[in-house]
Amino acid sequence: MGIHFDSGAGLFTLETAHTSYHMQVDERGHLLHLYYGRRIGQGCLSTLYPPADHGFSPDYYPNRRDRGVSPDVLPQEYTGCNVGDFRLGCLVARDEHGAAGADFLYVSHTIRPGKYALNDLPAAHDEEEEAETLIVCLKDAVTGLELELLYGVFARQDVITRAARLRNGGSAPLRLEKAASLCLDLPFGQWDLIHFHGRHAMERQMQRAPLTNAIHTVSSTRGASSHHHNPFVILCDRSATEDAGLCYGVMLVYSGSHRTDIEVDQNGSTRLVSGLHDQGFCWYLQPGESFETPEALLCCAPDGLGALSRRYHRFIRHNICRGVWRFARRPVLINNWEATYFHFDTETICRIAEKAASLGVEMLVLDDGWFGKRDDDNSGLGDWYVNENKLPGGLNPLIERINALGMKFGIWIEPEMVSEDSDLYRAHPDWAFTLPGRAPAMGRDQLVLDMGRPEVVDHLTDVLSDLLRRHHIEYVKWDMNRNMSDVYSRALPPERQGEAAHRYMLGVYRLLNRLTIAFPHVLFEGCAGGGGRFDAGMLAYFPQIWCSDNTDAIERLTIQHGTSFGYPVSAVGAHVSACPNHQTGRNTPLWTRAVVAMSGTFGYELDLGRLTDEECRQVKEQIAAFKRYYDVIQNGQYYRLSDPSREPRYVAWQTVTDSEALLNLVLTRPEGNARPLHLCLRGLEEDALYCVDTMRLYGTTVTPEVHSVQAGISEGAVYSGSTLMYAGCTLPQLSGDYPSVQLHLTRVTNH
């Protein structure tokens, strides 16, 4: 495993535990992509691409007479610009004459132990000293533009990270109008595209469709990775399932506007290009200056979609997330938002905390409305001082009362935004994005701060550091409740306005890096109107992200299902909320709400004082169950046991460790004369024995007497792993409105 270079053939081979990645410097000096897939070892594969003349595909100039050597058909590792490749391109570079062109030829390469780093962008880290770095240097002779292709090979994890560094090595300024992170050419095969679309309160809805001879685009121009198109896509065999088939994942470590294009060309070859969105983007490079693209996490799983997901889950937890909280047990929390919204005072919050503490909740989070002049969402953002009309004496007396109950204290902030009605905006109106001479579009009656300005980042660093130093705050919910429009920075000259959106994101990362290093004990949770910035870039600073503002447990099933394809359970912020649900009006059993929220960080967001004695007893049981199952939920291997788009009756999923397994199922569509609920478990040891030590049925209207005579899996029974995985198990019949099942198995012995 690792990185190998055959100098005689100009061949690079990147080998991981299960995959091989081949590229070659051809006789002209171009870097060609040859293969990425199931591990095949070393060896030259250039014979897969014999020269052939293709009509209207121009050849390189030295081949103008012999023909058949065209950039339009050869598989590229990273494309040039305006040199006869009419497929998707990685780059648009324009010189001082306005001419766009770049033809990159190999100069040198470096192989070294460890993982490369990026200067201002989040990237994977290597704490176990398993990674190797390959840097391939190429150059355009005319402009002097230098291209470094960066590869981080995590061999045991089957992950290859990629990024590009562009340096102006010439004597005149250059203008980058597009700079992608990677190109992936798959010259053979027919693929399905899986992507994750949505909207606010309905994020990451999985959609799968065959690629056609066209260009397919998954993108966001919102200044955020967005609720609408997650920066993560999968290409897979048309026959691929959870357990079989070749699958490729491409995930950007970036939280701003992004674009992934996939093209099937005239020859049936598939090209994927992913990186920063080029709409409105323009970056000036003076001689000697460099530009780095966001990192992409590339993973190939020859053994199905489930294996691809589990590789991403482990990699994100171990190599993207940082700090003490990535593996530590997260406290069960109560958030006051859906209980009070903006209308609270110290006594209201303390009453919520007292009730929560009596039920076993471990932390209270004070949401929006505690600061400035903030009685609704029309004022106060930017003024991060305490509203003492609501909280007499400030935060410390409240925190002391919360801590006296044995609970931690957390708080909500939205630092990247500003209200027009705020002291900050009145003092610094030029710190907000607005277009000269135009009234701005308003989202939630707020504007976006220009985070690309160093003085804005410095101000927020000082204000938020002071907040965290002066108060015993152990959790921060970091929100962002509008997307970017009117993007114009008053700190940049006209020719650099195309840099404003990306500079914004770099400023956000700079602020997050400062705060998470200065306050390592604080658990930071990301949020952007729910899941509007649920991406690997944010996870480099926040070990968990509020998955969606939609807290309806049944809606959350498909949201969390889609999220699971790329992101681990430990990253998914999930709460039990009130019924009727505040977003949908739906009534769902309290235990079913808990089963869904347990496949996340778990907490509550409702007025616990309105619960009945029976419901309070259930909350106590839920918290105890979550703590009991914490290891298998958060640290176990995750398996999707159903596809909501194909099986409308239920959603089922499972987590597994070496010693235990937890099966969860929610019935979404009860039937008359119901068919059996039969499932095959996954991830167990074939020869091991498993005892069903707990089987809980929640919310079902079928009586215990009926259950007792049903044939099916039962509490206390012992089964072999092979029986549960291949013969499967039949669950008791469920009926009523959204009942659920939790089945816990403990490994007892081997045959």
From TrEMBL:
Residues 29-286 form the Glycosyl hydrolase family 36 N-terminal domain. It comes from the Bacteria. Residues 651-745 form the Glycosyl hydrolase family 36 C-terminal domain. SUPFAM superfamilies: (Trans)glycosidases. It catalyses: Hydrolysis of terminal, non-reducing alpha-D-galactose residues in alpha-D-galactosides, including galactose oligosaccharides, galactomannans and galactolipids. GO terms for molecular function: alpha-galactosidase activity. Gene3D superfamilies: Aldolase class I, alpha-galactosidase from lactobacil brevis, Golgi alpha-mannosidase II. The keyword Ribonucleoprotein does not apply. Keywords: Glycosidase, Hydrolase. One of its GO terms (biological process) is carbohydrate catabolic process. Belongs to the glycosyl hydrolase. This is Alpha-galactosidase. It comes from Candidatus Gemmiger excrementavium.
